[in-house]
Amino acid sequence: MTPIAASRPAEELALERVFEEVRTTRMAAVPILNARLRVEAVGFREWRGARVGALVTPWSVNLVIVAAPGQALASLRTGVAECWSFPSGDYEFYGHAEPSIGQYRQCSLVSPVLEFSSHADAVAAARAALDALFTPAEPRRVSRRGLLTGA
Q1: Contact 35, 123 (CB under 8 A)
Q2: Distance from CA of residue 71 to its chain's centroid?
Q3: Does the predicted TM-score (pTM) go above 0.90?
Q4: Cα 91 to Cα 83: distance, rounded to the nearest angstrom
């Protein structure tokens, strides 16, 4: 393990491992994959007892909520939405679970991700969405797409 990888939070590394396995198994033959992108957990930070960040994959860019170290997310059936409030507004996150990481929540930003010409572009979009998520909004509702476009 490299020093850079060793300094990254365990939940980010676990997400990357799980979704890299998804990429090579469940998603391997799916025609919407963008070969220029790879799996990367981006910009995770603490928020209300959880960790919030983005997950870039060759098929999507999503906001993701995972349990903070020593914590657990309440059980939520796959595909069922719950509302999370952030400085920019309220957003629906859908329940998911993977055996090796447990419960997590996901809010889709872009899928498929064929519009990205490079992995760096996808990561930049993910970081911009996270910045927008944590920026207090004017008194208006921001859409998930608006997090990426600033609309």
Answers
A1: no
A2: 19
A3: no
A4: 5
